[in-house]
Design goal:
single chain; 395 residues; alpha/beta; 6-stranded parallel sheet; 3-stranded parallel sheet
Length: 395
């Protein structure tokens, strides 16, 4: 009798363990739904959804650059195909990019296979244009989601589905004043603001400078979604642990060390990882920029500091290159090797302002930015140029 009950209890325990294990793995794969950051710090994430036209992308990028603000853009595959160079501008400016589907369907009305096809096509298009990834963040078209959507996009590698707590509704063609007031009057720590890049939201680029200024005056700092949620950096490679995996086998697969993998994921016990856990795969340090050298003959009154300043390098770099142990001791006539970073050549052209020109239209023509032209010409008011004015255009 005792033996029969023991067997029954053992079988029940195994069934319960299997059920719990399956449930835990399913939960681990679902995408986390986020409407705002869980923080009391005054930080805000400006986000922009890009559809098929992306008319205002470069205007928005110029404003963000001028104000030293990083934002997050959610891109569609159709948009990438329609204006690849503008999407490349977003990535090159260092903004975060997430996946917003390929053709903008309602994900609650399509199959998981169709969802994942939408995500994969956009990811491929973005990688082809920038060499980077849209993972790990996704924004549902129309903001439409349910448990099936979260499971489907989570299984595709998008660990976080990003909603918003401030919707500017700028796509309705609202004025810049209304858009600014919606954001400034509703801001709270950790806010995620929804805006759009298309022609249907002409008020957004007009609103941005004042909005940013007013938020800064309130003490707010601007962060990307990954910074807000403390996620892996944009484009970071991630790996979802499978049954039978060890840190050693994963490290070997990605040609990194177990120690580096553990450090990147704050793992204290390298023998303890779980199925469904998403690991950040650390990348090897990038190759440093090429270094060129010049020679300099020391003159009366020279110091290593003055020479380093002249060549935009450091005293220690010159000392190392010349095996100098006492940085205060150099002699007139001594020939020094000066290591300097090799900067890419900058070319400029000149342009004479014509009637109807704006800095923005000129920047678009020459594929540069308003701020770059303003800096090259010492322009303090980017809205004030005159017909006949000759501008230097940095390329």
């Amino acid at each position: 009798m005792f033996s029969k009950w023991s067997k029954l209890l053992a079988i029940t325990g195994l069934l319960l363990f299997s059920l719990l294990s399956f449930t835990g793995q399913a939960d681990a794969a679902s995408s986390t739904f986020v409407t705002k950051g869980n923080t009391t710090s005054k930080v805000v994430a400006l986000t922009f959804d890009d559809g098929a036209d992306g008319t205002n992308i470069n205007k928005i990028l110029d404003i963000l650059k001028t104000n030293n603000v990083k934002a997050t853009f959610f891109v569609t595959g159709t948009g990438i195909n329609h204006h690849p160079s503008w999407i490349r501008n977003i990535a090159n400016a260092g903004h975060q990019v997430g996946n917003h589907s390929y053709s903008h369907p309602d994900f609650t009305k399509i199959s998981i296979a169709a969802m994942q096809s939408e995500l994969a096509k956009t990811e491929t298009a973005y990688k082809n244009v920038t060499g980077k990834s849209t993972k790990p963040i996704f924004r549902a078209p129309f903001g439409a989601y349910n448990a099936t959507v979260l499971k489907g996009v989570g299984d595709a590698g998008y660990t976080h589905t990003i909603q918003w707590n401030i919707d500017t509704i700028d796509w309705r063609g609202l004025s810049s004043t209304v858009i600014t007031d919606k954001v400034v009057n509703n801001i709270v720590p950790g806010s995620i603001v929804l805006m759009h890049t298309g022609a249907g939201a002409p008020g957004t680029p007009i609103a941005l400078p004042g909005m940013i200024s007013k938020l800064k005056a309130k003490g707010y700092k601007f962060v990307t979604i990954s910074e807000l949620l403390k996620l892996p950096p944009t484009g970071a490679t991630t790996y979802t642990v499978k049954a039978g995996d060890t840190l050693y086998s994963i490290a070997k697969k990605y040609n990194v060390t177990v120690a580096a993998l553990a450090a990147a994921n704050n793992i204290t016990n390298v023998n303890l990882i779980r199925v469904g856990q998403v690991l950040v795969i650390p990348v090897k340090a990038p190759t440093p920029p090429p270094v060129t050298t010049v020679k300099y003959t020391v003159k009366a009154g020279d110091t290593l500091y003055s020479i380093a300043s002249k060549y935009n390098t450091t005293v220690s770099a010159i000392a190392t290159a010349n095996k100098i142990t006492n940085v205060n001791l150099i002699s007139v006539g001594q020939v020094l090797i000066i290591p300097t970073k090799q900067a890419p050549p900058v070319t400029t052209v000149k342009y004479t302002v014509k009637a109807g020109d704006t800095l923005y239209s000129i920047a678009r023509t020459y594929n540069t930015t308003v701020s770059a032209i303003a800096t090259a010409n010492k322009i303090t008011n980017v809205n004030l140029i005159s017909v006949g004015q000759v501008l230097i255009i940095p390329r």
